[in-house]
Amino acid sequence: MQGDVKLLTPVEVGAWRGFLRAHAELARELDDELVAEHGLSLRGYEVLLLLHESPRGRLRMSDLADQALLSLSGTTRVVDRLAREGFVRRTRVEGDGRGVEARPTKAGTRLFRQARATHLAGVRARFLSHFSVAELDALAATWERLRA
Amino acid sequence: MQGDVKLLTPVEVGAWRGFLRAHAELARELDDELVAEHGLSLRGYEVLLLLHESPRGRLRMSDLADQALLSLSGTTRVVDRLAREGFVRRTRVEGDGRGVEARPTKAGTRLFRQARATHLAGVRARFLSHFSVAELDALAATWERLRA
DNA sequence: TGCATATTCTTGCGCGAGCAAGTACTCTAC
DNA sequence: GTAGAGTACTTGCTCGCGCAAGAATATGCA
Predict the structure, then answer these.
(1) What is the pLDDT of residue B140?
(2) Contacts of B69 in chain A (CB under 8 A)
(3) Of B12, B120, B144, which has the smallest distance from its Cβ to A136's Cβ?
(4) Three-state SS sequence of A71-118
(5) Which pLDDT belongs to residue B121?
(6) Nucleotide nearest to A71 (CA to C1')
(7) A3 pLDDT band (50/70/90 cuts)?
């Protein structure tokens, strides 16, 4: 019965489960850190990041959803929360009455900058610092390869 | 203001966000696949896997929680669901009346073997197949390094 | 022994997520 | 210009998760 399926080799298990475990632990730690120091979830940070990175400093809900790998309804609620706390504002899209854009308020930008310092330090300490530039390059290429 | 913080280099961004994105997409796809073909969540699969891998074919709730990187209460509910569907059974731990062990039923083992075929094929197709053995080895070493 | 403390698991509660249905607006075709 | 189809977002619902409190059992120590 076991023989029906070819199981993974130890190396394969190491590469795959290590990946899963690394992600689970990093995500949890980085989220805890942001929440503890800024009261901002990793999701909230990600949204503020995407907004700040976008060319016009704002994004339509659907674009935000795409970039955040989040459902549209999920995006609505993240933006709800950020808006309720005063970090983001909704505006109607010029020329399309159906559309809504989210953009950071001043307070949102301030929070983002502070949170970014924490977050980048965390990512460096827990992830980036373990690799040489060449290794980072190899990793980046790795992820790129998966997308094809 | 921007100058206060040293931002990530493009390579760093590629390595880090690629990692996040790869995980998000793989996890979603593999979960969808298992649910569609076997009505089993990735969590449920993981629990069945851990139970089947464990030396005695069963695990205490707390050990299962540790290995699954899940809270104890979360573990209680996953096992609840699997038990309700008849794939897992709870038994009291011999010699410790507080303890509970989970172990697969026959149906659970059958489901696991079927799901494993699907899942391994999915992991190979979406992840493992993109790498040489040497690359897998490097990846495994990568994750090992993060744990220290 | 017997009582306080610790351990193991479950339960109550609230939150963040997705799906499907609802609402509001736009576009197409006649 | 208006009906019907399409698009963009929000809302209702349900589910999975963690935390904190609770229940049951075990342990330590007088």
Answers:
(1) 95
(2) 21, 24-25
(3) B12
(4) CHHHHHHHHHHHHHCCCEEEEEECCEEEEEEEEECHHHHHHHHHHHHH
(5) 96
(6) C18
(7) low
